[in-house]
Amino acid sequence: MRAHVEKRSKDRYTIVIDKGRNIDGERDRDYIPTEITNKRKAEEEADRILVEYRNGNYIPPSTLTFSDYLDMWLKDYGLPKLSDRSYSFYKEMFRIHTKPRLGAIPLDKLMPLDLQRYYNDLRSEGRKDGKPGGLAESSIFKQHCIIHKALMTAVKWRLIRENPADFVERPKRPDSDVASFYEPEQAIAMLECAKKSTGKYAILAVAVYSGARRAEIIGLRWQDIDWETSTLKVRQTVQYTKDKGVFFKQPKSKNGKRDIKVPDIVIDALRIHLSNQQQFRDVLGDDYIDNDLVFCQDDGKPIFPDTITSWFSKFLSDNKLPKIRFHDLRHTNITIMIANKVPDIEIARRAGHADPATPHRLYGHVYASMKDEAANAIENALQPIAKKPDPEPVQSAKVITFPKRNLA
After folding, report:
1. What is the pTM assigned to this prediction?
2. What pLDDT, on the 0 to 100 scale, is given for residue 396?
3. What single-letter DSSP state applies at residue 223?
4. What is the DSSP string of 123-191?
5. Taking all residues of the chain, what is their mean pLDDT, rounded to a whole number?
6. What are phi and psi of 251, to 5 degrees?
């Protein structure tokens, strides 16, 4: 196998890789066009490519634009591997942000500087909701992770030699170790307000006492409630994407499919909620769409997930309660379990965490506040049998005599 260069256009050189003869006895050559105008540099590039040919790791120039590749990646990687929500989010992110700024660049010409400038643009003018300013650093970090994943796949597929996202100044990782939550007294106050001013007491009670996710709560069916053992069985979730609308889906992992025991106060609230729901069933008759859902629209249709989020925000504002997200009721539940020394493995099981170490990562601040309590508990446990140490004897001072030296 040999390589040489030919001037096949007025001011550009083409690299020719001569691979000998094929089985038909004809010359087997690959022609690699370049933008190189200097013959010596073209020959140096030919030598480099020849080495790659011989080592079997040559990657031919790609005709794909970055936009074309992202579409390919979503189809061939995203559809089989990503959840519906992740796929929809990635697709919208590429459409709104990535393709308009980077899509026209050939995939194999995408440089770290292109990505760096892209992130900088997002910081200054990345918003697409009509408001001035850029995206939050956490949003830019998420975009970087997605683009890095997509380009790493391009490396594995041998479309590019290396991942340009490896060489940028990575956006700052968001601080995910601090979760907002209510203290127990605040949670009780919120539930008391819900009793007086809204028909949503049952859903808030389930959120606080079970720690289930929003999608799991609005996917809960009456058949998933064990009235005798006061247990909620998480077996499906309600999701939404722009392409599919509202749909049902099984929990994303085997740990997500779980049973959560709740106090009788929750079961009592659900009994009342069932009675109220039955009134709507009776009024609507055949027009009621029976999905067996515990929490649904008045006609039985599943709740649009963001409806709960917007309603909860307004509920807190109307009752002058501290502002948190609906998801933070889950954090409240887990924080209370940690503070009451529920074993980590049981916390992870109830929460549906695949890794028992997840509570330590997300709620490290709660564990940190318990350090003094742990030390005091050890001291109190050992105090009755501990023997105070005898005082150390006072050491008498010693006089050290140095030999005299004759300095004369």
Report:
1. 0.70
2. 52
3. G
4. HHH---SS-SS---HHHHHHHHHHHHHHHHHHHHTTSSSS-GGGGS-PPPPP--S------HHHHHHHH
5. 86
6. -50, 150
